[in-house]
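User: Sequence recovery, please. Input:
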């Protein structure tokens, strides 16, 4: 890289880091706390990923997402998923209308709510699998198919789906293969005492403050391209691979606790999203390179919905987050130690 190119790269990184802080300031006008959730949402956005949010009602998930769309000067669409929702209700449909010039009739496509930049798929587990599949096609292909015609979606395109962990009766839980399409699974937790005190004051007082847009769609697309240019050292990639490959039961080098507690491990998408997320997080933190600390910070949201614990683990209260934490504890961060460990040599040779 020439000195001029390096200077341009540093300027771009600084621009994204400044944009990140500006977005957080705008969100802070409306949203109290939830710093980690906001950070993970923005990392997914700049990595061109999608998020699955899980939290009980009343934690401002919808408000957070709509405010994020306003701060990014993006179009926003909310879809309330219900048991009677059909694919055409979200993708759009062809209608027959009269051509006033010719007097004939012709088909015209009416766009559905998926044709926006930021999509809130509220309570995605309450709609039938065929409607879930229509959304997942849009997420993966960034297009919708209506009849024999494919329609391209808006760009940037960012889906945030929510789930309620309390009520499961009458729902259609997303299969693991469909959850794998989401970059992160983000837990939205209860606020701390001081945060809830501030929430109570703000929401029972005057009108909420206005949010100003910080970045537009074109700028976000440019920053998404910048994220992919962030260098990642081989030892960082090797560490990410080590974490993911240790989750695959029956493979060489898998630790005993994984074999005892996990019935299904993570696939290659986990590695891809770990590295992409690490690149985005590095830039948001003002760095031009990704580190192992970035991988560790994102291991939970990337892996928690890609592992399936068995019945024995569930009966003991073991969650996928517990498994991920133990994997991090048992995986050396030092490059030489990792390379000379017999168990990891078996993983690298497999």
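Assistant: Recovered sequence (350 residues):
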């Amino acid at each position: 890289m020439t000195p001029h190119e390096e200077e341009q790269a540093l300027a771009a990184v600084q621009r994204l880091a400044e944009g990140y802080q500006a977005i957080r300031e705008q969100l802070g006008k409306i949203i109290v706390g939830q710093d980690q959730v906001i950070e993970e949402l923005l990392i997914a956005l700049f990595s061109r990923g999608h998020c699955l949010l899980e939290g009980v009602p009343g934690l401002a998930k919808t408000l957070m997402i709509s405010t994020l769309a306003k701060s990014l000067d993006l179009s926003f669409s909310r879809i309330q998923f219900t048991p009677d929702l059909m694919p055409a209700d979200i993708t759009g449909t062809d209608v027959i209308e009269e051509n006033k010039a010719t007097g004939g009739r012709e088909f015209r496509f009416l766009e559905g709510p998926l044709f926006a930049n930021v999509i809130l798929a509220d309570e995605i587990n309450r709609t039938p699998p065929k409607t879930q599949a229509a959304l997942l096609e849009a997420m993966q292909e960034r297009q919708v198919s209506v009849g024999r015609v494919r329609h391209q979606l808006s760009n940037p395109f960012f889906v945030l789906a929510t789930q309620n962990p309390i009520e499961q009766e009458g729902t259609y839980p997303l299969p693991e293969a469909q959850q794998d399409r989401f970059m992160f699974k983000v837990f939205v937790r209860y606020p701390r005492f001081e945060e809830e005190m501030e929430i109570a004051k703000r929401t029972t007082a005057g009108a909420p403050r206005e949010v100003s847009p910080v970045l537009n769609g074109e700028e976000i697309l440019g920053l998404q391209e910048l994220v992919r240019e962030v260098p990642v050292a081989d030892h960082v990639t090797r560490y990410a691979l080590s974490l993911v490959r240790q989750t695959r039961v029956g493979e060489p080098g898998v630790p005993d606790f994984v074999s005892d507690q996990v019935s299904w491990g993570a696939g290659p998408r986990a590695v891809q999203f770990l590295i992409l997320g690490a690149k985005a997080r590095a830039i948001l933190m003002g760095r031009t390179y990704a580190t192992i600390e970035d991988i560790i910070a994102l291991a939970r949201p990337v892996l928690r919905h890609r592992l399936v614990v068995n019945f024995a683990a569930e009966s003991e209260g073991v969650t996928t987050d517990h498994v991920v934490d133990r994997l991090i504890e048992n995986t050396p961060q030092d490059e030489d130690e990792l390379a000379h460990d017999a168990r990891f040599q078996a993983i690298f040779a497999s």
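The chain is about 50% helix and 15% strand.
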